[in-house]
Amino acid sequence: MLSSLGVSDPFDPDHRLVTSPLYSPRTLALQRLVLAIYGCTTLIVSLVYESVVLRQGNIWFSFFTHLAFIGLTAYFVASTYHGFNYKPTSSSVYAFPLQQWPRPLQALHVMLMSTVTTFPILVTICYWALIASPATFATPYLTWSASSLHILNSAFVLLEITTTNISPLPWMALPMCLILLLAYLGMAYITHATQGVYTYTFLDPQTQHAKIAAYIVGIAVGEVIIFVLVRYAIITRDRVFKFSSYHVQDDQKFGAQKEELNEWEEVEWNEVGGRESTHSAGSGTSPGSRKQTTEVGMGVAV
């Protein structure tokens, strides 16, 4: 099952998770760091404001929007860590920490990548199609919150898809994504039972009646479509950029050239030293006799 999720041995031998077709691994790590910082800031401000001002902290974690953004931010945090610890060598296949972690953790990272490249897009579509209203931009906070959680989230995903070498999403991840959506549906109704509120109005059977089934099926179908589109967008990106782990190859080639240069310098130094020793021994002259000869020559010249 782990192999069907793309967990090979060694894991990610081409270092796709930490490289980019456009720029260096360090630049990619910096890009992810900026997104991670913005994501953490957004989550903290949102949680504090809605808990203190709006008095909705008790249901904050029940919104799929927040859960999806938490996953997206967690992915950028983890990817930033592995990116800054990326040290390719020609003598080892292990270049970043995740490659040496237990296989279940590697599988979880692949699953996290599969959710964060699809769920935010689903959130954006559902929000602007079913939930958004003129009140969405009623205050500066609501405007910023809607923009960050329902526009920039998808922008971050598109940036991750187009500027990195992440592998196409494994098909095995699709049913797991659908299971997670089903699990959230159950949590939404648990929230209503315990807090007396529906996190999303289209889940209310009292007002939606038969349409609620259409919404649920439509969201599931939407996730399938998004998953397929993202998978083949990544495949298309690889073809456009003619994917190759050229950053890794360059690093390994540089390391190999450096080793060859050191060996060449050592051999040359030994050869030069050997020739000098042989020349001194063959001449049979001492430093003193050479000095006397030089002085005699200078006297003749004068």
TrEMBL record:
Annotated region described as Disordered, given as residue ranges: 272-302
GO cellular component, one term: membrane
UniProtKB keywords: Membrane, Transmembrane, Transmembrane helix
Regions of compositional bias (Polar residues) in chain numbering: 279-295
Transmembrane segments: 33-53, 59-78, 107-130, 142-159, 171-192, 212-234
The protein, known as: Uncharacterized protein
Organism, as annotated: Macrolepiota fuliginosa MF-IS2
